[in-house]
Specification:
The complex is a heterodimer of chains A (about 350) and B (about 110). Chain A has about 350 residues and is of the alpha+beta class. Helices cover about 40% and strands about 10% of the residues of chain A. Chain A has helices at about 20-25, 40-50, 95-110, 165-175, 185-205, 265-270, 275-285, 290-300, 310-325, 335-345, and strands at about 5, 30-35, 50, 65-70, 80-85, 125-130, 140, 145-150, 215-220, 235, 245, 250. Helix content of chain B is about 30%, strand content about 35%. Chain B has helices at about 25-40, 90-105; strands at about 1-10, 15-20, 45-50, 60-70, 70-80. Classes of the chains: A alpha+beta (about 350), B alpha+beta (about 110). Chain A: Keywords: Hydrolase, Metal-binding, Metalloprotease, Protease, Secreted, Zinc.
C-alpha cells in the first residue's frame, strides 16, 4: 500500500490553531495562506514533498547532505535557478560561492564536532536561495530550506555574506528536527537562542577564536553603512547591540528580572533569547565554547516543543552531567552551567 | 485611499509601521502607492485557509496590511512564506516607507 504525505517532520503548513483563526475573525483580519494555485512557490514546494512512504523508514538516509544553491534572480520566488550544486566549480557570482562555502562549514561542524549528519541527521540536502526579492532585508528558514535577501545596501547588506546568519538559519532546521521548539514565548526564545548559540560557536570554530577572543556579536556583518558598527544581538551583553533611530534600542534582557512578557515578536522570541544567550556566554567563558556547545547540543535533543526556560536549564545540567561521565566535558561542568543560569535568574521558583 | 501597514519579526526583529492617507501625500508618491495596490490585486487576492499569525516559521517577517478605498476595505496578514509574489512590491515599498519614517522620527 502506498501513502502520500507531506515529508517534513513537523509540517507547519498543516498547523492552523483554531484559537488563532477565531481571534483573527473577531478582529476582522483575514490572516491567510494564499491559494496554492495562486502561488507557484507553494505549489512547487508541496509537489516536491510528496513521497512514497513505502520506500522510507524513519531512519532511512534521504540524501547526502549535498549543497544546492539557487538564485532567485531578485524575484520573490524560491528555486528559480539552480546555480551551484555539490562539487560544481566556482560560480561567477561571489554571493553564491560565499554561501556555498559557509553552509559547507556549518555542515562540517555538525558532522565533525557534533556527529550530526546534516539538518535531519539523515543527510538531508541543503537548499539555499540567494538574491531573494528586491532589496529584501531578511533571511529565514521555512521548514525545509533557507532563503537570503541582499539587503538594501543602506540599512542591511547581504544576509548570505555572514557565517553567523547562515549558521543561525540552518540551526533552525536542526532544532525543527530535534526538539521542535514551538516558535513562541519561552520555547520560541529557546529556539532563537539555540540558533544564536550554534551561529556563534560555528563562527568561532571557523575563525579559530576562543570564548575570550570572540566578539559574541550576532549580525554585525550584515549592518549597512547607516548602521555600521552596530550588531543585532550581543550574547555577551544582551541589550547593548544597537541603539539608533531606525531600530530603536536593543531590548534584549540579560536577566529574568527584565523578562519581556508582551505579545510582540511572537512573545519575545528574539528578545528573551538574550537570557539563555548570556548563560551560554558565561558557560563558554568558563569551560570553553567547544565544550559548552556540546552540552547545548546534547540538551537540544532532550527537549520537547513546549519546553520552557526552567525545563531547559534542567536538561542542560543533566546533559552536562552525562557528558562528564563520558569524559567529554570537564568535571565541574554541571556546576558551571547551573551557576551561569543562576546569574541570569534561572531557574525561576 | 487609507493604508495601515505593519511589519514585525525577521532575523533583525524589526518592529515598524506606516499609516497614511494617500490624499495627503505628494502626487507622485500617492500615485505610486495607488499603482502598487492596483498591480497587487489586493482586493481580489484569493486567500485560502487561515495561517497562523504567530508561531510562523523562524525569522520570517509578519505583515499586516489594511487598505480602505472608496467603499472597499480589506485587512490581511501574511508572512514571508505565505505572501503572494504579486503583493511583494507593495509590501517592500511600504516597508521602506516605514523605515524612513522611523529614521526621521528622532
Amino acid at each position: 500500500m502506498t501513502f502520500n504525505r507531506c515529508f517534513c517532520n513537523r509540517c507547519m503548513c498543516q498547523f492552523v490553531p483554531p484559537e488563532v483563526t477565531a481571534n483573527l475573525a473577531k478582529a476582522g483580519v483575514e490572516t491567510a495562506q494564499i491559494s496554492a494555485r495562486a502561488s507557484n512557490q507553494q505549489r512547487n514546494r508541496r509537489k516536491n514533498k510528496i513521497v512514497n512512504l513505502s520506500t522510507l523508514t524513519p531512519s532511512a538516509k534521504v540524501g547526502h547532505a549535498m549543497r544546492k544553491i539557487y538564485d532567485s534572480q531578485h524575484e520573490w520566488e524560491q528555486r528559480v535557478e539552480l546555480v551551484r550544486s555539490e562539487g560544481d566549480p566556482v560560480n561567477s557570482d561571489l554571493v553564491v560561492n560565499k554561501v556555498y562555502d559557509y553552509v559547507g562549514i556549518v555542515r562540517d561542524f555538525f558532522k565533525k564536532v557534533l556527529n550530526r549528519d546534516s539538518i535531519d541527521n539523515s543527510g538531508m540536502d541543503l537548499v539555499l536561495n540567494v538574491h531573494f526579492g528586491q532589496k529584501y532585508l531578511n533571511a529565514f528558514w521555512d521548514g525545509d530550506e533557507m532563503t537570503f535577501g541582499d539587503g538594501d545596501g543602506e540599512i542591511f547588506v547581504g544576509f548570505a555574506d555572514s557565517l553567523d546568519v547562515v549558521a543561525h538559519e540552518l540551526a533552525h532546521g536542526v532544532t525543527q528536527f530535534t526538539a521542535g521548539l514551538e516558535y513562541k514565548d519561552q520555547s520560541g526564545a529557546l529556539n532563537e537562542s539555540f540558533s544564536d548559540v550554534f551561529g556563534t560557536a560555528i563562527t568561532q570554530f571557523a575563525n579559530q577564536e576562543t570564548a575570550d577572543t570572540a566578539d559574541w556579536l550576532i549580525g554585525d556583518e550584515i549592518m549597512g553603512p547607516r548602521l555600521y558598527g552596530e550588531a543585532l544581538r550581543s550574547m555577551k551583553e544582551p541589550g547593548t547591540a544597537y541603539s539608533n533611530s531606525l531600530m530603536g534600542k536593543d531590548s534584549q534582557p540579560s536577566h529574568m528580572k527584565d523578562y519581556y512578557s508582551g505579545p510582540k515578536d511572537n512573545g519575545g522570541v528574539h528578545i528573551n533569547s538574550g537570557i539563555p544567550n548570556k548563560a551560554f556566554y558565561l558557560t563558554s567563558m568558563d569551560i570553553g565554547t567547544d565544550k559548552a556547545v556540546l552540552i547545548w547540543y546534547t540538551a537540544l535533543q532532550r527537549l520537547t516543543p513546549t519546553t520552557d526556560f526552567n525545563t531547559a536549564v534542567a536538561a542542560l545540567v543533566d546533559s552536562a552531567r552525562l557528558l562528564v561521565r563520558e569524559g567529554q566535558v570537564p568535571c565541574g561542568s554541571p556546576q558551571v552551567v547551573r551557576a551561569a543560569f543562576k546569574a541570569v535568574g534561572l531557574p525561576t521558583v | 485611499m487609507i493604508i495601515n501597514f505593519s511589519c514585525q519579526g525577521g532575523f533583525a526583529n524589526l518592529q515598524i509601521a506606516f499609516s497614511v492617507d494617500t490624499s495627503e501625500l505628494s502626487e507622485s508618491l500617492s500615485q505610486e502607492l495607488i499603482d502598487l495596490v492596483e498591480r497587487s490585486h489586493f482586493f481580489e487576492l484569493q486567500l485560502q485557509q487561515a495561517a497562523p499569525k504567530f508561531s510562523g516559521p523562524p525569522d520570517v517577517f509578519v505583515y499586516e496590511l489594511t487598505i480602505q478605498d472608496a467603499n472597499k476595505s480589506r485587512a490581511i496578514a501574511c508572512n514571508d512564506v505565505t505572501a503572494p509574489p504579486a503583493l511583494r512590491p507593495l509590501l517592500a515599498r511600504l516597508q521602506k516607507l516605514a523605515l524612513e519614517q522611523s529614521s526621521n522620527s528622532d
